[in-house]
Amino acid sequence: MIFELRPICGTLQSKEVFSTPSRRKQSLTDDMIREMDDNFRKANWTEESISTLVDLVTDLERWAVIQGKFSPSLTVQKKQRIWEEIAERVNATCSSACVRTVKDIKKK
Question: What three-state secondary structure class fits 72?
Fold first, then answer.
């Protein structure tokens, strides 16, 4: 931070001058980088991974948890664990190059 002295009506007054880029510009840059990472194209879904996903999601026990209403026995953590389990199994069926996140699997 640099201070600059300016005469105003015969008195000296200090004004802060920032030598670094503004925080807004920096956050825009960070957002743009994050957006570029999100837009990175992954490999196409294989028929095997799609069929695995369908089998896992349509399993009656999992379906009840995924589509069920929240209650003391059905929490967000329980639903998240189910989605993570599905993601692990789907990722096990495809090659190591295509790692699907829970977000990708929910979208599909």
Answer: coil
Q: Which two tokens stand for residue 56?
A: 């896992």
Bridge partners (DSSP) listed for residue 5:
14
**Would you say 59 and 81 are in contact if contact means Cβ atoms under 8 Å apart?**
no
DSSP 26-69: HHHHHHHHHHHHHTPPPPPPPHHHHHHHHHHHTSHHHHHHHHSP
Q: At 42, is the pLDDT very low, low, confident or very high (cuts 50, 70, 90)?
A: confident
pTM: 0.61
Q: For residue range 67-87, what is the model confidence (pLDDT) as tens digits?
A: 999 999 999 999 999 999 999
C-alpha closest to that of 3 among 21, 16, 22: 16
Distances from the Cα of 2 to the Cα of 8, 10, 20, 45, angstroms: 19, 22, 10, 55
Question: Which of 30, 5, 7 lies closest to 17 in space, CA to CA?
Answer: 5
